[in-house]
Design goal:
Oligomer: single chain
Strand content: 25-35%
Distance between the termini: 41 Å
Low-confidence stretches: 1-7
Radius of gyration: 14 Å
Number of strands: 8
Mean pLDDT: 88
CATH architecture: Alpha-Beta Complex
């Protein structure tokens, strides 16, 4: 990544879909790893002038998973850095309309999707993902 100011970093909405104490993860290639790794699905926020986080979340969920969120909230205001040095803005999605596909929809080589137990997902090698999953675990324990 070239030397960008922090406020110029790409923002990515992360969608933590949850059901029965499991989180939906995608298995995808990550630079530096020989095997595919689990990541929380997400997508890039368009220019801040054109798209707020909620609009980006709804657009990306339709593009990547073909579902529309009906109950969701920002999980944390913490500045979380992603695998590609982007700024992650995680949302917890507790309800949605539509069927979750077997693979991410908008990729030429679609990444498989899998429901993973929260505790198992915490074993991810990615610090940003671990932070999000830890926030999710705390959110779930408060909202049961």
């Amino acid at each position: 990544m070239d030397k960008m100011r922090k406020d110029q970093l790409t923002r990515v909405v992360i969608f933590a879909l949850v059901k029965e104490n499991k989180i939906l993860l995608e298995k995808r290639p990550v630079k530096g790893f020989t095997d595919h790794q689990f990541l929380i699905p997400g997508g890039t926020v368009l220019d801040d002038e054109l798209e707020n986080l909620e609009k980006a979340l709804k657009r990306e969920l339709v593009e990547e998973l073909g579902v529309t969120p009906t109950e969701f909230e920002l999980l944390t205001d913490e500045e979380i850095v992603g695998v590609y040095d982007n700024t992650l803005k995680p949302f917890v999605i507790s309800k949605w309309e539509g069927e979750i596909p077997k693979n991410v929809l908008d990729k030429d080589d679609p990444y498989p999707l899998e429901w993973v137990e929260i505790e198992e997902a915490l074993a991810t090698p990615f610090e940003g993902s671990r932070k999000i999953i830890q926030h999710l675990k705390e959110f779930l324990s408060k909202n049961r």
